[in-house]
Write a structure and sequence with these properties.
mainly beta, OB fold (Dihydrolipoamide Acetyltransferase, E2P), 2 domains, twelve-stranded mixed sheet, 2 helices, 12 strands
């Protein structure tokens, strides 16, 4: 089987204009929020990283000229993590690095396939109503020796299975990328923040015991 896998497929609506994120080897990369509606009606707002050329192809104009907000877009790429050392906001920044970006008329979609290894002991807990939840951190290797560290959450029977796993165990899964608003108290002041995680829908064949 493959040692790693990282594939994200999204369809949703651009919620704001793209802003310059960084430059690499003369290529400009932009960041913008994409809203993806769940079947329940709840919305996840996910951050997409795309090149200037990709955005121009999708919106019909360069990102500096605007026009992206409200566009229906299809994204295929990888979920990436970045360790924020600025001291401002969340320490682990999660974004979708777009390999393809195109206009779409199809309904919203949020699907991710991951395969990697656990890099922290899973935390198994229960809700006040007794439902099992498992929190874990999955390391998924990239090329050139780098890796992405991706927080994952599982519920019910899948939580029971993953909660018994150990650091270094392989894990393959399918699920969705979700955003979650929470409140953190910093120096006595409540701050609203957003966490990003992979909600596991099912374990794929390779990961089941």
């Amino acid at each position: 089987m493959e040692e790693t896998r990282n594939l994200v497929q999204l369809r949703g609506t651009a919620a704001a204009e793209a802003q310059l994120s960084h430059e690499n080897h003369g290529q400009r990369f932009y960041r913008f929020p994409l809203t993806v509606r769940r079947l329940s009606g709840q919305t996840d707002t996910l951050h997409i990283i795309a090149t200037s050329w990709q955005l121009q192809q999708a919106a019909g104009r360069p990102p500096e000229e605007g026009g992206l907000t409200g566009c229906r877009l299809s994204v295929e790429g990888q979920l990436r993590s970045f360790n924020n050392k600025s001291g401002c906001g969340s320490r682990l920044i999660i974004s979708v690095f777009a390999r393809t970006l195109a206009p779409t008329e199809e309904r919203d979609l949020n699907c991710i396939q991951l395969q990697g290894v656990l890099c922290k002991p899973p935390v198994l807990r229960r809700t006040p109503l007794g439902r099992c939840i498992s929190d874990m951190m999955l390391a998924v290797n990239r090329r050139y020796g780098r890796a992405d560290y991706l927080p994952c959450i599982a519920w019910g029977q899948v939580a029971m299975i993953t909660g018994r796993m150990a650091v270094g165990d392989p894990l393959a899964l399918e699920g969705r990328v979700q955003s979650r608003v929470y409140t953190k108290v910093v120096e006595g002041c409540a701050q609203e923040r957003v966490a990003y995680e992979v909600s596991i829908m099912r374990l794929t064949e390779e990961a089941e015991p």
